[in-house]
Amino acid sequence: MEQDLPGAGEQIVLAGLGNPGPRYAGNRHNVGFMVLDELAARMGGKFKAHKSGAEVVEGRLAGRKVALAKPRSFMNLSGGPVAGTARFFKVGPDGVVVVHDELDLPYGSLRLKLGGGDNGHNGLRSITKSLGTKDYFRVRFGIGRPPGRMDPADYVLKDFSTVERKELALNVDRCADAVEALVAHGLLAAQNSFHAS
């Protein structure tokens, strides 16, 4: 699949992954929600419950029509709400961009790609199953590996450390910039800008 710019049509769905509710809000696993909150603030929009099973904000980002979607399901059931939002807005998988945490990247580093495996990420596994394809865009926010012998499943459900939190707002901001670059200029340009740092 050679496509570089998300979405053949005008509309794009930007989905951020996380778990709903205040108990999980500061978790590493919820960084996708944090990035979408930043994008919603840039668009001047507020999330509202949507029949797709996600909280949705509609508006424009980088000159394109976008729907921001935060699934109201738990992480491992993200696929239904993401696919439901895409169906509602008549967006194919090539117009879906998923923002998620990534254990295999150092904290704060960013990687953008189209397609690929789920790398043990239950949210991605659910989305791939619901969309029926791996060919959707991903913006991966590095959270690093757990220390010592900590179970990755426990690690992702812990809040960012005090040291990490000092850089968190900056890193979330940079990730939002990367999403905007992807939407405006395509995958290659966004990779060139954000993979080096």
TrEMBL record:
<keyword id="KW-0378">Hydrolase</keyword>
<feature type="binding site">
    <location>
        <position position="74"/>
    </location>
    <ligand>
        <name>tRNA</name>
    </ligand>
</feature>
<dbReference type="GO" id="GO:0005737">
    <property type="term" value="C:cytoplasm"/>
</dbReference>
<feature type="active site" description="Proton acceptor">
    <location>
        <position position="29"/>
    </location>
</feature>
<protein>
    <recommendedName>
        <fullName>Peptidyl-tRNA hydrolase</fullName>
        <ecNumber>3.1.1.29</ecNumber>
    </recommendedName>
</protein>
<dbReference type="Pfam" id="PF01195">
    <property type="entry name" value="Pept_tRNA_hydro"/>
</dbReference>
<comment type="subunit">
    <text>Monomer.</text>
</comment>
<dbReference type="GO" id="GO:0072344">
    <property type="term" value="P:rescue of stalled ribosome"/>
</dbReference>
<dbReference type="InterPro" id="IPR036416">
    <property type="entry name" value="Pept_tRNA_hydro_sf"/>
</dbReference>
<comment type="function">
    <text>Hydrolyzes ribosome-free peptidyl-tRNAs (with 1 or more amino acids incorporated), which drop off the ribosome during protein synthesis, or as a result of ribosome stalling.</text>
</comment>
<dbReference type="GO" id="GO:0000049">
    <property type="term" value="F:tRNA binding"/>
</dbReference>
<feature type="binding site">
    <location>
        <position position="24"/>
    </location>
    <ligand>
        <name>tRNA</name>
    </ligand>
</feature>
<keyword id="KW-0963">Cytoplasm</keyword>
<dbReference type="GO" id="GO:0006515">
    <property type="term" value="P:protein quality control for misfolded or incompletely synthesized proteins"/>
</dbReference>
<keyword id="KW-0820">tRNA-binding</keyword>
<keyword id="KW-0694">RNA-binding</keyword>
<comment type="similarity">
    <text>Belongs to the PTH family.</text>
</comment>
<feature type="site" description="Stabilizes the basic form of H active site to accept a proton">
    <location>
        <position position="101"/>
    </location>
</feature>
<comment type="function">
    <text>Catalyzes the release of premature peptidyl moieties from peptidyl-tRNA molecules trapped in stalled 50S ribosomal subunits, and thus maintains levels of free tRNAs and 50S ribosomes.</text>
</comment>
<dbReference type="InterPro" id="IPR001328">
    <property type="entry name" value="Pept_tRNA_hydro"/>
</dbReference>
<feature type="binding site">
    <location>
        <position position="76"/>
    </location>
    <ligand>
        <name>tRNA</name>
    </ligand>
</feature>
<feature type="binding site">
    <location>
        <position position="122"/>
    </location>
    <ligand>
        <name>tRNA</name>
    </ligand>
</feature>
<dbReference type="GO" id="GO:0004045">
    <property type="term" value="F:peptidyl-tRNA hydrolase activity"/>
</dbReference>
<dbReference type="InterPro" id="IPR018171">
    <property type="entry name" value="Pept_tRNA_hydro_CS"/>
</dbReference>
<feature type="site" description="Discriminates between blocked and unblocked aminoacyl-tRNA">
    <location>
        <position position="19"/>
    </location>
</feature>
